[in-house]
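Quick question, first post here. What does this chain look like in 3D?
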Amino acid sequence: MNYLEDYYSKYNEESRLLSRHGQVEYLTTMKYITESLEGVPDPRILEVGAGTGRYSVTLAKQGYRVTAVELVAHNLEMLRSKLDGAEPIETLQGNALDLSRFADGTFDLTMLLGPMYHLYDRADKLKALSEAIRVTRPGGRILVAYCMNEPTIIEYVFKGGNLGEVTEQNMLTRDWHCISEPKDLFELIRTEEIASLDAEFPVEREKLVATDGATNYMRDVIDAMDDYVFSKWMEYHFIICERQDIIGASHHTLDILRKPDARE
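> Answer (accepted):
Ran it through. C-alpha cells below.
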C-alpha cells in the first residue's frame, strides 16, 4: 500500500467537509460548480479524484450526469456506498494522469478537486491538467483545487512550533517554500506557480478563488458559531473570496479555467 492509500484508508475526509469550518470550502466550491453549469443544457460532469463522493454524489443526486474517477479503492468503496442506484453516475477507478478511456471534448465540466494535492513534480501536474483540458469540450470549464504554501508556513512551522524539525529535515527552500515528497502526502503551491501551469495551455482563467480564506486560521471560532453568525461569516467570505490580495493565504484555492471555443 502506498502513502496515499494508507492515509485515505484511515483519514475521514468526509468529516472534515461536514464540519462547520469544512463547510466553508464545500459551500464555496459548490457555489462555483453551480455557476460553471449555468446555461449548459443537460451537462456532463467529470470529477477526477472524486474521493468519497462529497461533490460527485451530491451532483448526481441533483440529477446531473456525473462520471466519478477515483484512484484509492477505499474512497471509491465509500463513494459507491452512498448511491442507491437511481443516480445518473458512473464510478470508475483511475488515475488523473491517464484519462485515455475518455474521448476528447466529452465533458462540459471537468473537476480536479484533489489530484493536485498529491502530484509532486511539474511534469505530473502538467499531465493531469492536460488530460483534464483534453476531455473538456470547447467552451467548457475546468475546476482545479490546490493546497497553498503560506498557511503551512504560518500554522505548522511557526504557530505549531515546528521550525526546528522542518529546518533539520531540509523541508524548506531559501524563499520559504515547503519541499514535499510522497511521504508528506500534500504538495503545496503558490499563486505564481498555478499561473505558470495555466500558461502552458490554451485556456483562459476566469477566476482564482480562496475556497476557505481565513476560515482555517480560526477553526474553533467557526465551529462554535451559531447558524446566524455562520451565515454572516459565509456572507463575508463570499464577498472577499475572489480578492487576489488574500488568495495565497487561503489553505485551499480553486482555479476556474475555460477552454475556448474554436470559433473564438
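Residues 87 and 260 are 30 Å apart (CA to CA).
The chain is about 40% helix and 20% strand.
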